Amino acid sequence: MPVRPAPVPDLAWTPEQADDLATRVLAVWRDLLEQLPDLPVTKGSTPSEAAPAVALPVPEHPMPPADLVAHLRELAFEHTTQVGHPAFFAYVVGAGTVPGAAAELLTAGLNANLGGYRLAPGAAEIELHLTRWLAGRFGLPEGAGGMVMTGGAMANFVGLKCARDQRLGLEVREAGVREAGPVALYATEEAHVVIRRAADMLGLGAGSVRAIEMDDELRMRPAALRAAIAADRASGVTPLALCATAGTTTSGAIDPLPELAAIAAEEELWLHVDAAYGGAAAFAPDLAPLLAGIERADSISFDPHKWLYTPQSSACLLVRDAAVLARSYDVEAA
Ligand SMILES: Cc1ncc(COP(=O)(O)O)c(C=O)c1O
To answer: Which residues pair with 185 in a beta bridge?
Structure first.
C-alpha cells in the first residue's frame, strides 16, 4: 500500500482563523494610518539593516501568527518608504487609497485567474468595461479597447508590439524581424527608458529609437521629426512608430500632439502616446486641453497607479481598434 502524505493543514483555514489573522494585520495598517504623519518618510534602511531584519530563514513550519504579524509590523514601520506620507514628494508614484487597499484584500481572497472568461467573468467584464471607458475619456472612437497590465513598461511594450505587427505585417509574428530590414521609432531623450527597452525586447534594437531634438520646454520638435523620417527613408530604413510622451517623467513635458499626429498620419506611422504619467490630465476639464491630439493615437499607455492613486500595479494599454490586440496576441493552445 502506498503511504499517503498527511494532509497539509495550513491550506485549510477556518473562517475564524482567517478573520483572526486578517484582524491582526488590519491593526498594523490602522496603526500605520494613525501614526503616518508623525513617522519619518523613510528610515533609509541600508542593505545591512534591512536584509537581516526581513530576509528570514525560510521556516519548515508555519510561524505563529503573533510572530508573523510582528514581522509584518517591522517591515511596514522600519523598512518601507512611506509613499502615502503627507511629506512624500519625490518620485512618480501614487499614495494608494484606503478603498483600494481594502479591495486588494478581497482580490487576493478571490484569487481570480483572468486567463479565461469562465474563470472570472466578473473580472473580465470589469477589465473590458474599464478600458473601453478610459479609451472613451481619451477621445478614442467606438471599437477602442484595451487591457489592464502590470505597469507602464509592459503597456508600452505591448502597444509597440501592435505597432510592429501592424506596420511590418502579421507575418513578422511567425518569421521574426530578420527579414524586415532596419526600422526606426521616434521619441525624445526625455521619453521613458522603457521605450528603448521595448524596442530591444521586440528584436528591433534599442538603437532603432531615434532621439528627436527638443525645444526649450523639452518637447519634440516637429520639424526635427520630419527631417529624421526623411533621412531614414533616404537610407532605406522603414519608419515604424512615433512614440510621443504626454507628461515626461522628469519634467512633465507634453509633446505637441496635434502636430505629431498630423505627421504620423502623413507618414503612415503608428502613433503611440505614452501617457503613463500625465494621462489623468484628460479627466480634469481645466487640464484636458493640454492633451489635445491624444484622441488621434493608435495606442496609449496609461498608469492609473500614478495620478489616479489605484494600488500598484495597474497600468493600461488602450488601443484605437481593439481588434489589433487579438491580431498581435491570439494563439491556438493545445
Ligand atoms: C512616462 C512614463 N512612461 C512609463 C513609465 C513606466 O511605468 P511603470 O513604472 O508603471 O512600469 C513611467 C513611470 O514613471 C512614466 O512616467
So the answer is: 209, 241
Distances in Å between the Cα of 46 and the Cα atoms of 58, 105, 162, 331 are 22, 30, 42, 46
Q: At residue 112, what is the residue type?
A: A
Q: What is the pLDDT of residues 248-291, one digit of tens each?
A: 999 999 999 999 999 999 999 999 999 999 999 999 999 999 99
Q: Assess contact for 206 and 200: CB atoms under 8 A.
A: yes
Query: Among the atoms of ligand 1, which is closest to the Cα of residue 93?
Result: 14
Q: Is 298 in the pocket of ligand 1 (CB under 6 A)?
A: no
Q: Is the pTM of this model over 0.85?
A: yes
Closest CA to 273 of 316, 308, 231: 316
- Residues 318 and 22: their CA atoms lie apart, in Å, by 36
Residue 152 Cα: closest atom of ligand 1: 7
**CA atoms of 197 and 156, how far apart (whole Å):** 10
Q: Where are the domains of the chain?
A: 14-91, 117-329
Is the distance from CB of 199 to CB of 208 less than 8 angstroms? yes
State in Å: Cα 274 to ligand 1 middle: 8
| Residue 252: all three cell numbers together | 512633465
What CATH number was assigned to the domain covering residues 117-329?
3.40.640.10
* 296 neighbors 261 (Cβ within 8 angstroms): yes
- For the 14-91 domain, the top CATH level (class) is mainly alpha
